[in-house]
Amino acid sequence: MLDFTPAGTARRQAYGNVVVGLAMLCICVLASSVRLFSVIKYESVIHEFDPYFNYRVSRFLTEKGFYETWDFFDSFTWYPLGRVVGGTMYPGAAWVGWHPPPPPPPSPPQVCVFTAPLFSAFCALSTYLFMKEVRGQGAGLASAAIIAVVPSYISRSVAGSYDLEAVAIFALVFVFYLYVKTLNTGSLKWATALFFGYLYMVASWGGYSFIANLLPIHCLACIVFQRVSARLYIAYAPWVILGALAAANIPVIGFNAVLMSEHMASFFVFGLLHAALAIQYIQQMLPPRAYSAAKKLVLTFGTTALAVVMALVVSYVAASPTFGWTGRSLSLLDPTYASKYIPIIASVSEHQPPSWSSYFTDLHISSLLAPAGLLLCFRPLTDASLFLLLYGVTAVYFSGVMVRLMLVLAPAACCLAGLALSEVTSYLATSLAAAQLDGDSAQKQGKKAEDGAGGQVADFGLRSTADKGGKKGAKHAKKSASADSGWISDTWRPLPKDVAIVGLILVFAGTSLFYKHSVYVAGEMYSAPSIVLQSRRADGGIKVFDDFREAYAWLSYNTDPDAKVASWWDYGYQTTAMANRTVIVDNNTWNNTHIATVGRAMSSPERKAWQIFRSLDVEYVFVVFGGFIGYPSDDINKFLWMVRIGGGVFPEIKEPNYLGSDGNYRVDDQAGKALLDSTMWKLSYYRFADCGPMFGAPRGYDRVRNTVIGKTDFELKYFEEVFTSEHWMMRIYRVLDKPNRDTKLRNPRRTKVTKKARSKRRGASGALS
Amino acid sequence: QRVLVLLNDAGLEQSHSSFLKGLGARGYQVDIKPITDKSLQLKSWDEWLYDKLVILGSNKELGGAADVAQVVEFVDEGHDLLLAVDSQVSEELRELAQELGVDIDVKGHAVIDHFAYDSQLGAADHAAVLADSAVQSPAVLPGGLPWPVLFRGIALSVPADSETAFLALSGSPTAYSGKPGVAQTDAKLAGGSLGLVALAQLRNNARVAVAGSLDMCSDAAYAAAATSRTGQSLGAVANRAFCDAISKWAFQERGVLRASGLSHRVVEGAEAGAVAPERYRVNDLVEFSVQIHECADGACTPYKADDVQVELQMLDPYVRATLAHDDAGRFAVRVTVPDTYGVFKWVLEYRRLGYSFIELTETVPIRPFKHHEYERFIVQAYPYYASVASMMAGFMAVGFFFLY
Predict the structure, then answer these.
(1) What DSSP string describes B211-226?
(2) Which of A70, A81, A749 sits opposite B157 (nearest CB)?
(3) Strand, coil or helix: B210
(4) Inter-chain CB pairs, A–B, below 8 Å
(5) Whose CA, among A69, A114, A619, A660, lies 20 to 30 Å from A674?
(6) How far apart are CA A259 and CA A242, in angstroms?
């Protein structure tokens, strides 16, 4: 028999807390460890592109200190413009990599490599707290258990993925938790905490503008649904002012915090909230008749004032070419904007809209449960659940615009799914308990067994504790549902015992499948560092392609420390971080013209490219080439973007010239003439035909494009091959100097030397001849 | 320094003994070989056996291991070459000259001048011309040309837009290139663009002299006296002085500029006094200085010129300033760096006819102000300070009245 005396309830409460604590510990360990596949399968390296920048800034921070980093002017990138790194970066992630000098044994890479798994655990914790505020412990545990392994989040937070998003998703959820906590308690203490949380979020990621718009939307919804309260005011109003100050203090945002349209909504709703409160206040003060007269008066004046303000805002906004929005934000509001006007944004694969299948791969069961969670937000509709609801709906929209924002959807989907899962489980479990209460007295033992199992595996912990917390939640729901005279059903009826058992088994099976899928995805799909590649050999062994690091090491050991290296912007961060050489453009795509100049050089014939590179003092050019081993994301496949970006600034580059006669991009003998003449073609395919990459393939067979290339034998006049990595993935060329002698100049008075003498020449005669 | 002299035939050693002795007298270790020598070697493994090369060539080709490519490589690695040919020039030597940026006319042609010829030596074919239009460069010919140069040989030409080659001695307005004794109505090469002696200063500062005449530097020419078409004596010829000048220039004994001690420092700014700082701040006042010396005849003296300029470039020059010198070879200028941050470089490019090129670059990034380096408490900000203070005071007042 359950003990319903106060002492018994307190004891059960205490047991429950211990179980919840253990479960959360397991969830955190799980969240971290599932992200360690990349270290186990590959090695402890920094992944991909952007993390290399954060790593480099962390290194700088460690060596030079906080203030130097604030004023970090980087002369190694964007040569010769340089980049004011301190003023153009979100430092949140880099701060994490800081450690006091002199470096203790875990050197910066180790700190940076394991930042993401650590913050994933923090994220699971803050998800628990957030959902606990929204609905209760059960929903919190279920959501934390889901977000710990949701593939979408894993994709950006495996060990080594030292990216902004790795820390920012934690910050995002934590800010939501603080907001909801402030909303529920109405305490200034939590409002202060919200400010600090928001400060870290703003420092971490440009995605802070999602919060900056979501909070006003929530506040507006509260005003519209007449849910204005002092608690809302405490949560929202200080955040607007202090949040704007916080944002303005991060150099990369600065005055944008009050100038850009992204931030306007919060101020607008701030005013509206005051108006709503004023109306409430006046309504209390005045007798009804006076109130209606005052209302008329205020409405007239208010509308006029509002119209004036709106006119001012509109005229200010219309004066700026992008209507006060940044290009990236505009591409969110109008999904076709980027592909039409900003090829540099459209060229990034993570800025493409996601495919339907990626929702299932990345969210799995949460994409099924989330809609149910949306419905459950209405049952009952509290301020907090309204917030979750709005978060879910807006995140779904944004995720549809670009793949990258799946990451914002992931916590929302997990919270909603966790809510649904916990409600379903608690409903089923309560039915079971009710049946047992009615039926026999053996449940005491069963209860014990269930509690014992709870702490061992996170999954079981989820079930048993969701049961506990859920009961409370269900009771709560029952109460408020009857008070609300809810629109689904206001009477609670237990399910039959066997239906409940089957239901529980189904839930268990579903979550198990989700875990299996997530662990598989974490291990196989999202752990590749992309700097080291692997493929399986026929005999089952693993072949490692370490060409990138090989080439960067070559650069760092064999070139002058002052040498400038040109490549497509994708490899800029890696070159500065790994080869420690000056680059022309990098992944911080702040100067479109500069990138277009490199695109133009790559798309131009050799001589023109040579002139452009010389004018930029470039000494080495490298291209990434996959035709030898079949690595598909090489520069030839990216080439059309170079043409588009180059052509966007320099109209002499015309995309149709690079396409075959049938209008397709192809590299065989039907390829466009400009493509065959371009420097990118020559640097990629130089000497390619002579090396015979694959047994039995025809001469000059490209394994990525699966065709014989259009032009096989040619010489380079203005570039000199200096290094080609083992699998030809990186090919480094030296830009030749100006010739030592002026030999081939036009001279109308010259009488040519006869052939006979020339035939005696042997060997090359030096630069450019 | 070792000089290899390659002779078309053994007789040249006799006929050019003054010239060759002159080389020896200037301290060179002269090694004389026939051009066709089967054992001819310019380098052994990776080491050059000679520092300078003189080719007194004509119809024969290079023998042994030497060929055009190797001679070009010799020059490309910073060695000097003096090449003299005559009208019987072989195709190989023509090709060699062409590789070095000087075009020699075809075999059999000669420079003819029916007006400015020497009436004693060139009465028959008018091909012994008296040339007096020499290059105006104190580095090549310090005192100019006092008398005409007696010249019998083949014409040269230099591409109009060549940055490396120039004519040291060019034809008179009436000179042209043709076959002696054959009437012709048109000449591809004529007048001032017809070269008699061409010099080239390559980008690595190696020097090449190409003379269209072998006789020009012979003992006979040294001793000759010029007589004009009308039989009037023009006094001596300047051949000895000219040949000496050409060989001295070609062997880096004249017109060599040495730049050293490039230095820059901040005069006024964040790091005032810092010598060769890692970077400047925008609007710093900085000083750029460099030592330039001119080396001639084995001695280096301070270079004196008022046209040495330095630029501060980031894609384009932002600042171009003329350096002032102190008569002791130190060239310096003070410049306020632009109000633009970026990776700038000092570029000093000095190219004057006959002088060796000076190309110096020094990269110095210019950084923006640090967060604490901006001016504070500016007058324009006082209204804002006042508004903040009044706001705080007002809040206090309202709070006080509201609470008490």
Answers:
(1) ES-SGGGSHHHHH-EE
(2) A749
(3) strand
(4) 125
(5) A619
(6) 16
Is 2.30.40.10 the CATH number for B256-367?
no
Say whether pLDDT at A418 is over 90.
Answer: yes
- Measure the CA–CA gap between A489 and A487, rounded to whole angstroms: 6
Q: Are B315 and B296 a contacting pair, CB within 8 Å?
A: no
**pLDDT at residue B319, as a whole number:** 93
pLDDT band at A103 (very low <50, low <70, confident <90, very high): low
CATH 3.40.50 given to domain B2-251: yes
Q: Which residues pair with A702 in a beta bridge?
A: A707
Residue B245, Cβ density class (10 Å: 0-12 exposed, 13-18 middle, ≥19 buried): buried
pTM reported for the whole predicted model: 0.83
Closest residue of chain A to B68, computed from CA coordinates: A761
| Ramachandran area for residue A700 (φ above 0: left; ψ -120 to 50: alpha; else beta) | left
Give the span between the Cα atoms of A22 and A647, in whole angstroms: 59
- How close, in Å, is residue B314 to chain A by CA atoms? 6
Q: Which of A749, A762, A769 to mutate to test the interface with B (most CBs of B within 10 A)?
A: A749
- 3-class secondary structure, B234: strand
Sign of the dihedral defined by the CA atoms of residues A754, A756, A760, A764, in that order:
positive
Rg over CA atoms, chain A: 31
DSSP designation for B82? E
At A95, the amino acid letter reads W
Lowest-confidence region among A101-110, A423-432, A689-698, B134-143: A101-110
What is d(CA A176, CA A169) in angstroms, rounded to the nearest whole number? 11
pLDDT value at residue A665 = 87
Q: With 50 as the cut, is the pLDDT of residue A478 above it?
A: no
Distance separating alpha carbons of residues A587 and A637, to the nearest angstrom: 18
Could you tell me which residues are beta bridge partners of residue B83? B55, B210
Work out the pLDDT band at A455, boundaries 50, 70, 90: very low
Domain assignments of chain B as residue spans, ordered by start? 2-251, 256-367
CA distance A248 to A262: 13
| H helices present in A525-634, as ranges | 547-558, 572-574, 592-603, 606-615
CA atoms B110, B112, B116, B119: torsion sign? positive
Read off the DSSP letter of residue A100: P
Contacting residues of B for A73, CB less than 8 Å apart: 279, 341, 365, 367-368
Residues of A with CB below 8 A from B371's CB? 67, 70-71, 251
Which residues neighbour A559 within 8 Å (Cβ) at sequence distance 6 or greater?
Answer: A565, A579, A581, A619, A620
Domains of chain A: 546-560+591-748 (3.40.50)
Eight-state DSSP code of residue B57: -
Q: Which chain B residues are closer than 8 Å to A754 by Cβ?
A: 91
Residues 6+ positions from A2 with CB-CB distance below 8 Å: A8, A437
Chain B closest-CA separation from residue A255 CA (Å): 15
> Which of B95, B101, B344 lies nearest to residue A757, judging by beta carbons?
B95
The first and second tokens of residue A39, run together, are 């270290």
- Of residues A159, A156, A180, A178, the one with CA closest to residue A169: A156
What are the C-alpha distances in Å from A200 to residues A169, A249, B250? 11, 11, 69
Tokens of A330: 């505009």
For residue B199, give every residue at least 6 positions away whose Cβ sits within 8 Å of its Cβ, in sequence order, or none.
B135, B140, B165, B166, B167, B168, B207, B208, B209, B210, B246, B249, B250, B354
CA–chain centroid gap for A708, Å, is 38
pLDDT at residue A452, as a whole number: 38
Residues of B in contact with A616 (CB under 8 A): 315
Convert the pLDDT of each residue in A319-331 to its tens digit.
665 555 666 666 6
Count CA atoms closer than 13 A to A468's CA, side-chain side. Answer: 27
Cβ B148 vs Cβ B131: under 8 Å: yes
